[in-house]
Amino acid sequence: MAAEDPSQEVLLVLHEALLGGDIAASVSLAELLLPAMLRRFDNRRDLERHEIESIIGLCIATYLSLDPPAHSGRSFRSDSCTRSFRG
Q1: CB 5 within 8 A of CB 39
Q2: Partner of 51 for a Cys bridge, out of 26, 31, 34, 47, CB 3.0 to 4.6 A?
């Protein structure tokens, strides 16, 4: 049975918790986003698996490292990671 991507509602709740200073929310977000993003981009044949994992990891880390004001109205968007794959 294939794993499902996290719902936008779940991601939004975690995003709001992250804005509220909940450190555990960053761990939960990373645990949900990494496998979902790997499923989305794993079919890339122009990159090695470790390159895909690195790009995704950097996208998630960048999102999680933003200061709360920078997060305002900006939950994680996979299209920001898509731009990273384009070079």
Answers
A1: yes
A2: 47
